[in-house]
């Protein structure tokens, strides 16, 4: 029996889904109906439904071949954070434009000296009447070049201990005090950026939560990030176009974007498959290496860990389906994903031997294993590094003593050599 939510979406889609319109118009309709982000409040792109109901919405959109809601960090983390910590005015101002894909947001958290230890951040903001003046540097900011706004954490109270003097802002990116410089990655792409703030301005009414209490808002942002990266319970965003004017998709025909998305999905699938056991086994056969004992052992190890990982995933999904809270399998899952990527990288390049040093069209299979080898590193860093996952497993799963944090209660301005150097510059 389909749920009544599923039935309602189906009826709505029959009347409203059209591929011959622009993306802007389709997302406007989806957000206006509340089916874009069903768990968001009514009138703000949602219907105030439970998170679980969002799954049936995703399924119905996919079954109708309809374009899903806009995806991006603003939609994945910004919206939920504003719902949880923002003011009524902020909810009125930002939620509907996010739900309708009119805005793209980036995450201005990491700095050259603050990644895993985010609370050591040094970008500062000083209040000047109705505005705050921001100076400092962020790094690894995905999508900053096309973002309209950024979720920014900055130090506003250096006399307080490091977790207590941070304020959370939503900053407008298109202003003279914000400079975005792309970083070239080793795989040839440039999705990351450095962002420099030189007396950039944020109105006081764009502070989320209370000034100097931004750590709580940052922690909740990271929780929504983990939830989103792990597949989440929310609606699945579309590959057919990205939100925000600067990404340039809003006035394109939905039918064209769907065709392009189908192609990209194929490329993504091929990239994912490059890490799989079957891709490795067929590479070994093609290169005449499948009788090599070292290669066979590598293949067996990859298969064994891959199967254990798959089964842990099934167990986690079954537990979630039965309404149980996530357990240790979630903590170990990310770690195993990183390890599988590394094993696939090492094994594929070992099978290719000297040909592993070639790139692009000169390499076996047009260099797809080389590209994979250059990208797998990201998994063990993004969303918390492997070492940080091990700390979490040690402390929260194995019950080991907590890592000592000698600087937790010390005023930030009295901390670390790096901080003093930063302030002198
Ligand atoms: C694909 C991708 C996308 C990203 N997008 C964004 C983005 O949009 N916005 C943003 O703000 N950031 C983004 N990041 C940055 C990311 O959050 C950081 O890279 C990550 O938190 C690690 O911080 P770091 O690079 O400063 O490394 P560091 O924290 O300096 O760590 C360096 C090394 O020390 C280890 N280490 C650190 N602390 C400990 C400890 N307590 N115990 C044991 N070992 C430790 C780490 O595991 C690591 O090996 C992105 C990163 C990636 C890979």
Radius of gyration: 23 Å
The backbone outline, from C-alpha atoms, is globular
Strands ordered across the widest β-sheet: 1-4-5-8
Structural class: alpha+beta
**Average pLDDT rating:** 88
Largest sheet: 4 strands, mixed
Please give the share of residues in helix.
Answer: 40-55%
Q: What's the CATH architecture of the largest domain?
A: Beta Barrel
Which ligands does the model contain, each kind named once?
flavin-adenine dinucleotide
Whole-number count of domains: 3
Strand content: 5-15%
CATH superfamily of the largest domain: Butyryl-CoA Dehydrogenase, subunit A, domain 2
Number of strand elements: 8
Short description:
This protein is α+β, with helices and mostly antiparallel strands. It has 13 helices and 8 strands. The strands form 2 sheets. A 4-stranded mixed sheet has the order 1-4-5-8. Strands 2-3-7-6 form a 4-stranded antiparallel sheet, with no helix packed on it.
């Amino acid at each position: 029996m389909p749920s009544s939510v599923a039935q309602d979406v189906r009826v709505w889609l029959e009347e409203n889904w059209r591929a011959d319109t622009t993306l802007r118009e389709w997302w406007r309709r989806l957000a206006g109906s509340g089916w874009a982000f069903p768990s968001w409040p009514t009138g703000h792109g949602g219907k105030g439904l439970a998170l679980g109901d969002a799954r049936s919405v995703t399924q119905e959109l996919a079954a109708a071949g309809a374009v899903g809601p806009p995806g991006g960090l603003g939609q994945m983390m910004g919206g939920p954070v504003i719902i949880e910590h923002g003011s009524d005015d902020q909810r009125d101002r930002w939620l509907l434009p996010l739900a309708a894909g009119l805005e793209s947001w980036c995450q201005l958290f990491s700095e050259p000296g603050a990644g895993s230890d985010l609370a050591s951040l040094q970008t500062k903001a000083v209040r000047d009447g109705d505005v705050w003046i921001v100076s400092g540097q962020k790094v690894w900011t995905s999508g900053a070049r096309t973002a309209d706004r950024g979720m920014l954490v900055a130090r506003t109270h250096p006399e307080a201990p490091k977790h207590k003097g941070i304020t959370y802002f939503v900053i407008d990116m298109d202003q003279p005090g914000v400079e975005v410089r792309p970083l070239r990655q080793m795989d040839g792409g440039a999705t990351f950026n450095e962002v420099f703030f030189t007396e950039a301005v944020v109105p006081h009414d764009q502070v989320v939560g209370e000034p100097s209490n931004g750590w709580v808002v940052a922690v909740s942002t990271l929780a929504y990030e983990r939830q989103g990266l792990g597949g989440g319970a929310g609606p699945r965003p579309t590959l057919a176009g990205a939100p925000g004017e600067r990404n340039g998709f809003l006035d394109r025909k939905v039918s064209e974007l769907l065709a392009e998305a189908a192609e990209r999905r194929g490329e993504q699938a091929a990239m994912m498959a490059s890490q799989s056991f079957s891709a490795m086994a067929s590479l070994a056969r093609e290169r005449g290496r499948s009788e090599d004992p070292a290669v066979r052992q590598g293949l067996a190890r990859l298969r064994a860990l891959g199967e254990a990982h798959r089964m842990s995933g099934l167990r986690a999904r079954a537990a979630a389906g039965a309404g149980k809270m996530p357990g240790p399998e979630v903590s170990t899952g990310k770690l195993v994903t990183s390890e599988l990527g590394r094993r696939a990288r090492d094994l594929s390049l070992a099978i290719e031997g000297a040909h592993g040093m070639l790139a692009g069209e000169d390499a076996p299979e047009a260099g797809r294993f080389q590209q994979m080898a250059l990208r797998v590193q990201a998994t063990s860093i993004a969303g918390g590094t492997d070492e940080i996952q091990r700390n979490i497993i040690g402390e929260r799963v194995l019950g080991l003593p907590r890592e000592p944090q000698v600087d937790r209660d010390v005023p930030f301005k009295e901390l670390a050599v790096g901080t003093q150097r930063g302030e002198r510059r």
